[in-house]
Structure formats: structure tokens, C-alpha cells
Write a structure and sequence with these properties.
elongated; mainly alpha; single chain
């Protein structure tokens, strides 16, 4: 019991070590939020291109659409076929090789890496949602004089989003947990904060149990918020 008290004191109180956790939570949430936004943008664009290519008859697929679809397929294959850690290492030590090792540069590198990675998975999630919508929805929108883009924006995408919300929620939770590997480039996120405390105090149990509890709490909060969104959307469908 005394060793546990000592571990808690050294982990949180000694030298204001709790600040490592607070700063780590902030960086973790920043990387997750901006990577999610980037991933959603990339994913929706890729999903629209892939869906447009698959829905068009063979003789109506223009050269531009074919090229864009090929680019998207290569992007999906490469990103989903290589580990996230490897992508992050390449981004920092190869693409950002000339950048100074500042927190700002590391955060931007992490956001870009996780955003590109998440975009590949979001693309397939959104594409499955788009393909699940009856073709009559697209035909109805076009018959009303809407362009393909406007029909996708106002009719198809909103319905597809409702169908894939649980899968997108799982991707968000996975993204939040995967940000822990930013320690490999030196970014002081939540996991790195615990590692620093462990190195300074030689206490491993309390710091790592603490970050496990923090990650669990954040995931439970996200799950609750996603559940609220799903229930509200179901109510709107009933009305």
C-alpha cells in the first residue's frame, strides 16, 4: 500500500508531473481532431470518385474519371497495405527531414500522417454507404435538374452518412488510440508523458495504468457521444 501511495505521489505530485498528462491529453486531442477532419475530407472525395467510376457504364467513363479512379486505388492500396508507424516514420524522417524538431512541426507531421492514413479507411466506409443507397435516389435528383455533385451533396451523402455513422465512430476511436505511436518521432503526447515520468521516477505501474485509464475514459466519452448522435438520427427518421 505504501509503495502505491509513493507511486501516485511521484507520478502526479512530484515536480508537478501531472502537467505531462495534461499537455499530453491536449496534444493527443489536437492530433486526433485535425487528423479526423483531414481524413473525412480525403475519404469523402475518394469515395465519391470511386463510386462515380463504379456507377457509370463502361462506355461513359471519361479519361479524367479513369485516371482519378486509378490514383485513388493506388492510394488505398499503399496506405492500407503499410503499417501506420512506418508511414509516420517516412513522413518525419524522409518528407520532413529538413524540418526542425519542434512541437509545431511534429504536430503538423502527425496530423498529416494520420489524416492521410485515416482517409483511406474513411473512403471505403463512405463508399460502402454510398453504394448502399438505392440508385433511384440518384435518378430522382437528376430528374429534378440537380447536377451529379449536388445530388451527391444534398441527397445521397446525407443518407449514406446515417448508414455508416457507427463505422465512422469506430474509425474515430481507432484513430484516437493510434495517436499513441507519435512517441516514435518525439512528440510529447499522453503516452510520451507517461514514458518521461517513468524514466524520471523509475515508477512504471502508476504512469502506464494512468494513461490506460485516461484513454479508456476518452473512448467511453466518444462512444457515448456517438450513441447520442445515432439516437437523434433514428428519431429524425421516424418523424
Amino acid at each position: 500500500m505504501e509503495s502505491l501511495r509513493s507511486g501516485i505521489y511521484q507520478t502526479f505530485i512530484l515536480d508537478h508531473n501531472y502537467k505531462y498528462f495534461l499537455n499530453g491529453i491536449k496534444i493527443t486531442l489536437i492530433v486526433t481532431l485535425f487528423a479526423l477532419v483531414l481524413g473525412l475530407i480525403l475519404g469523402v472525395l475518394v469515395a465519391i470518385i470511386r463510386s462515380a467510376h463504379d456507377q457509370q457504364p463502361e462506355n461513359k467513363r471519361g479519361i479524367l474519371l479513369r485516371v482519378l479512379n486509378l490514383f485513388c486505388k493506388v492510394y488505398l492500396t499503399v496506405i492500407r497495405g503499410t503499417p501506420m508507424m512506418v508511414q509516420l516514420l517516412i513522413m518525419w524522417f524522409v518528407v520532413w527531414a529538413s524540418a526542425r524538431a519542434t512541437d509545431g512541426n511534429m504536430i503538423r507531421c502527425a496530423v498529416l500522417s494520420f489524416g492521410i492514413n485515416s482517409g483511406a479507411y474513411v473512403a471505403e466506409i463512405v463508399r460502402s454507404g454510398i453504394m448502399s443507397i438505392d440508385k433511384g435516389q440518384m435518378e430522382a435528383g437528376r430528374s429534378l435538374g440537380l447536377s451529379y455533385v449536388k445530388t451527391m451533396r444534398f441527397i445521397v451523402i446525407p443518407q449514406a452518412f446515417k448508414n455508416v455513422l457507427p463505422a465512422l465512430g469506430n474509425e474515430l476511436i481507432t484513430l484516437l488510440k493510434e495517436t499513441s505511436i507519435v512517441t516514435v518521432i518525439g512528440l510529447k503526447d499522453l503516452t510520451k508523458g507517461a514514458m518521461i515520468i517513468q524514466a524520471n521516477t523509475y515508477q512504471a505501474m502508476v504512469p502506464y495504468l494512468a494513461i490506460a485509464a485516461i484513454y479508456l475514459a476518452m473512448v467511453m466519452l466518444l462512444s457515448w457521444l456517438l450513441g447520442v448522435m445515432e439516437r437523434r438520427m433514428r428519431k429524425s427518421d421516424i418523424r
